[in-house]
Amino acid sequence: MWKEAAFPLAVMLALAGCSGDGTNPFSDDSDPDSGEETTGITVPAEVAGNVSAMRYDATAQTLTVTGVSLDKVPFQAVYTREAARDVDYGGYQVFMAQDDALDRHATALVLQSDGTAVTGRVRAGVAATPGPRNRYLAGGYFERDGDFDPPAVTATSGMVSYAGRYAGLTNAGVRDYGEGILLEPDPSTPDELLPARAAQTTGDVFINADFADNRVEGNIYNRRFVPTNAALPSIVLVASEIDADGTFAGRVEYDLRQSNGAYAGLDDTEIGNYAGIFGGRDASAVGGVVALNQFDGEDALGFETEQEHGVFVIGKCGTAGASASVCNDVK
């Protein structure tokens, strides 16, 4: 079995891809108690990237991605579920596609919150292919079943915290042949023709929502570049407005407070965008996507044109979908 002797992490040039029409047919058609999906929800082009649609069937464990070209035939490509790899992607559900050994390899990560189509729930996902041929194709999606149902705002309620896991895909291409991910080409294949898979990141995410003032902000921390287990700087989801339909969008910056000393003193440089949606009864869950135009601080990993598209689907503190260790500090 042929395997590269080295472990190259080649950062590809990024392509500002078409985001489609911005409408959102990310749906679960198999649910017998299907309620109303969101309509008229726009995924901002800054985070949608090349992804124009995702159709995720949580029951059948299938995913169809539209818009990430050159991933698979047909244009609406059905990705293959890779459940054994979820643990390497922060627990998000992993799907992959590759037509043959010289075609691009694509990875998609998706998750659906607790709840039903009747009680309400959210879904979000990202997909990416890092090359070859100098271009990174990637983007994200989010969706909700049911209407926006914010919690009641009283003198003692209305401020809500959410916590959970984060996972991202980058334009750093990993050629780890022999691991059962990439189809293996002939050993004599020229290097210029060899595909790579998208290197992943993981982390934790914490979000605070003020439903009295309709504002949201958050952190993504404990971030790691998984192929080398290198620490990455924490980032901030800068405070932004919650719209009347329960969606939000804002900017991402490096956090001025870094728990990892290697990134101490990092400026609050603006590095990308985030967007998402609240769903479930009393806004019991939140899902969204992040698009970054850099992620390793002042080139700590030696990358200069790095990009990342990440996803979060997390529960409200006090629910099964939230990280208990963080929520213990929330009243």
Automatic annotation (TrEMBL):
Q: Which PROSITE patterns match?
A: PROKAR_LIPOPROTEIN (PS51257)
Domain of life, source organism: Bacteria
Q: What is this protein called?
A: Thymidylate synthase
**What is the scientific name of the source organism?**
Pseudooceanicola nanhaiensis
Q: Tell me the classification of the organism that encodes this protein.
A: Bacteria, Pseudomonadati, Pseudomonadota, Alphaproteobacteria, Rhodobacterales
